[in-house]
User: Fold this.
Amino acid sequence: MTERPEPYEDEYRVARLRERLAGDGPAELGVRVERRGGVVLLTGTVPNSTRRDEILALARATLSGLTVRTEVAVAGRDAPDHGEELR
Assistant:
């Protein structure tokens, strides 16, 4: 049976992921990493699906053993299909 890391170790790994997102390679400041109970939640928007996949792979590697929920969206680059009405 594999032992679970101490809670402070989990917090360290969450902080490490935040640090890596902010500093390694192209900084991804639009992604938030939050600890909610026993789940780590990733939210935000990234420019393309390749970057999203890189972030998810990094999260899996950094937070292995923790439950990670991702709600990271890819920003749309398509032109709007209708005009915007301003009031």
